[in-house]
Amino acid sequence: MKEIKLEENNRLQILQEALEVLRAGGTIVYPTETSYGLGGDFFDIKVIEKINKIKQRGQDKHLSVIVPDFVYAISLVTFTNTARRLATEHWPGPLTLVLPYKYHELNAHSDDYLALRVSSHPFASSLSINLGNPLVATSANISVTGDNYDPENILEQFSRAKLKPDLFINAGKLPQTPPSTIIKVIGDKAEVLRQGGIKIAIN
Hints:
The protein is an alpha/beta fold. The chain has six helices and eleven strands.
């Protein structure tokens, strides 16, 4: 796993290097508005398999993604009035919406629903905008361990792993913020699957 440190004066250079890795079917660890994420091209089935192997979990586990904006999200999932309102109020930010996926039959690693959000982190947002495909946004850890905010923990954890991410974008210690809130919307009924950084009461 190659490590590069993200600084104010090298963001464009590191962005380009990360995009090269992603477009070549690689995986990266990158900073988000919550914790460090483990990412890859969601449309590449081999990448999805690799990410699940890195996390040491079954291939039946579904992954959430980051998309550039609301317009792009509309191309992937179906928005009801409730989902549209939630996205308008809380995107970009740590709200993951689980919505009907329009192309689930084309992706063996998805079901009828896709979990997605628009990131408020500048680097994660730039990655999703420039990649052109949804960016996988799962926690950068081995399965059943906690979210990672500290680069030292990430380096230590993956140093012992048989399969590692290809690139680690080290942005230093991240604030220990809660994970994203996850809400599944079916029709105009919403269900909170995980209460995270955004507190939303569903009537």
